[in-house]
Design goal:
Elements (H helix, E strand, L loop, with lengths): L4 E6 L3 H14 L3 E4 L6 H6 L1 H22 L11 H26 L2 E3 L3 E5 L2 E4 L4 E9 L3 E3 L13 H4 L8 E5 L3 H12 L3 E6 L10 H13 L3 E4 L3 E7 L2 E6 L4 E4 L1 E4 L3 E3 L32 E3 L10 H16 L13 E3 L5 E5 L2 H7 L2 E8 L2 H6 L5 E8 L5 E7 L3 H13 L4 H6 L19 E2 L1
Parallel strand pairs: 1-2, 1-6, 2-3, 6-16, 8-9, 8-14, 9-10
Antiparallel strand pairs: 4-5, 5-6, 7-15, 11-12, 12-13, 17-18, 18-21, 19-20, 19-22, 20-21
Helix pairs in contact: 1-4, 1-8, 3-6
The structure holds flavin-adenine dinucleotide (FAD).
Catalytic activity: 2 glutathione + NADP(+) = glutathione disulfide + NADPH + H(+)
Family: Belongs to the class-I pyridine nucleotide-disulfide oxidoreductase family.
Protein name: Glutathione reductase
Length: about 450
């Protein structure tokens, strides 16, 4: 049977774009791709990229305070959100153009429309046109989830944060995951009065507990009103904003309420179940290690599969799919020892097992140190850095590394290479320190603080 395409990709985000481009440019495949919103997907348009630019913007208030301590005669005016947003929009337009251009250069045919599955080899576009393909890749990502409660229609999500007409003066952020915590620090750095509710006992569930406590403490020190064990009961619009009543009796009026309480995969109405493709409880597509669904011609990568929801993982899954299907080289998407960063202030870089995960296995040693870094110590800030290594007591292999410090995201990338290569504590110790840096503490940790 002749198909219109060798591959049709639904979704022009991190995973879909990478797969489409590699299949076309490196394997000579005929590729079509449908994107219903903007090319580049969540990462480029309303995730990693605009968020990181806001992280940079928010860092200048502290930097200017530090500068004065270092002898600079600087006076900060206010933060001009409108000026920043104009530049941000232009940058996102530029990046979107690059993504589109790269696909076109590779010969991918782009459809700026929604697509759904019609059968195992057919996608249907919004205008009813059908396109056939030998293989279909579902890469539709995810979207923010807001639970229903009285007043839930008043809240915004991370999608809208980048579109504020004016920065709110007071914001309530609901959630304790990395997106909630990052926006709490960003907005607080930009001068917004931030209150954060999280229903659990500590923010950043799933990460190393000591690091979670360290970050929560730093956030409170910055003036973020963090309320744990607390959820929203109801929201009412009042004359001067949104009145929020909390489950712990707390109440307050805010200019905006941002919900960052999780994300759900974009599978509704895609036609997956009609084809017999399994969905997990939250709607994520069920796939095997090669990202193949129960229908052999249909694969899925990225957040829509809810494995590890990070851009580099979606990209790797897209590339592994192309290796497997178009290059005759069956390749499993690799989810081992994936490093990550949380762009709070200070940042958190993490790879491998947390102390709690390691403790459950037993036979582990924990090395850790917390100290005031030289740069902010000099300027009188109270920041503290945390450096932590988790070791297998028998092999001395480093099983996990957790860093809370400015630029921890940069540090953890390099530590992750060593850990991925199987580095032991002795390898770390043999490595000469780079002085004076924060990271040198990683190679000078002398004795375990705990053994399990
Ligand atoms: C606020 C925020 C911050 C983040 N920060 C980071 C970070 O710092 N580091 C990191 O690694 N990850 C980060 N992420 C996660 C990262 O953005 C995602 O893991 C990544 O974008 C997933 O890529 P994807 O290709 O699976 O999906 P997406 O990038 O979401 O792309 C899916 C695309 O499919 C389109 N689409 C959906 N349905 C259809 C349809 N039926 N037809 C046509 N098109 C469709 C959507 O419009 C979208 O463009 C962040 C996410 C958010 C929300």
């Amino acid at each position: 049977m002749a198909f219109d395409y060798d591959l049709f990709v639904i979704g022009g985000g991190s995973g879909g774009v990478r797969a489409a481009r590699l299949a076309a440019a490196e394997a000579g495949a005929q590729v079509g791709l449908a994107e219903e919103y903007r090319m580049g997907g969540t990462c480029v348009i309303r995730g990693c990229v605009p968020k990181k630019l806001m992280v940079f913007a928010s860092g200048y208030a502290g930097a200017m305070q530090d500068a004065r301590a270092y002898g600079w005669d600087v006076a900060a005016g206010g933060f001009d959100w409108a000026a920043f947003r104009t530049r941000l929009d232009a940058e996102l337009d530029r990046l979107e153009g690059i993504y589109r251009g790269n696909l076109q250069k590779a010969g991918v045919e782009i459809f700026d429309t929604r697509a759904v599955l019609a059968d195992a080899h057919t996608v249907r576009l919004a205008d009813g046109t059908e396109k056939t393909a030998r293989h279909i890749l579902v890469a539709t990502g995810g979207r923010p989830f807001v639970p229903e409660f009285p007043g839930s229609e008043h809240v915004i999500t991370s999608n809208e944060v980048f579109r504020f007409e004016a920065l709110p003066k007071r914001i309530l952020i609901v959630g304790g995951g990395y997106i909630a915590c990052e926006f709490a620090c960003i907005l607080s750095g930009l001068g917004v009065k931030v209150t954060q509710y999280y229903r659990g006992a500590q923010i950043l569930r799933g990460f190393d507990e000591e690091a979670r406590g360290h970050i929560a403490g730093a956030m409170c020190d910055q003036g973020i009103g963090l309320r744990l064990g607390c959820n929203v009961q109801r929201i009412d619009r009042v004359a001067d904003g949104l009145w929020v009543k909390a489950t712990d009796g707390h109440d307050g009026v805010y200019d905006a309420v941002l919900y960052a309480t999780g994300r759900v995969p974009n599978t509704a109405g895609l036609g997956l179940e009609d084809l017999g493709i399994g969905l997990k409880g939250n709607g994520a597509v069920e796939v095997d290690g090669y990202s193949q669904t129960a229908v052999p011609s249909i694969y899925a990568v990225g957040d829509v599969t809810d494995r590890i929801n990070l851009t580099p993982v979606a990209i790797r899954e897209g590339a592994a799919f192309v290796e497997t299907v178009f290059k005759g080289n069956p390749t499993r998407a690799d989810h081992e020892l994936v490093p990550g960063a949380v762009f709070t202030r200070p940042e958190f870089g993490t790879v491998g097992l947390s102390e709690e995960e390691a403790r459950a296995r037993g036979g582990v040693e924990v090395y850790a140190t917390a100290f005031r870094p030289m740069q902010s110590g000099f300027s009188g800030r109270e920041d503290r850095v945390l450096m932590k290594l988790i070791l297998c007591a028998h092999t001395r292999r480093v099983l996990g590394c957790h860093i809370v410090a400015d630029h921890a995201g940069e540090m953890i990338q390099l530590a992750a290479i060593a850990i991925r290569m199987g580095a032991t504590k002795d390898d770390f110790d043999r490595t000469v320190a780079v002085h004076p840096t924060m990271a040198e503490e990683l190679v000078t940790l002398k004795a375990p603080v705990r053994t399990w």
